[in-house]
Amino acid sequence: LLGVKFIKNREVLDGYELDGFNEEQKIAFEYHGVQHYEYIEFFHKEERQFKEQKQKDRMKRKMCKEKGIKLITVPYT
Question: Cα Rg for the chain, rounded, in angstroms?
Fold first, then answer.
């Protein structure tokens, strides 16, 4: 993508993993499967876990914005 490498990264967001991150370009991406939008028991045994996933997604967006990182979210559809 864009002729640059993107690597998984847990460091830039204090333990929250980005599916792909390029430090030089300050661009990250996240692929969101259906489990990021709908409660599906296969992925989340309890609805509470689904809500926690949604909160993690919000935190990643907030932290990226605060750090000046452009976050691209790729939905499953």
Answer: 13
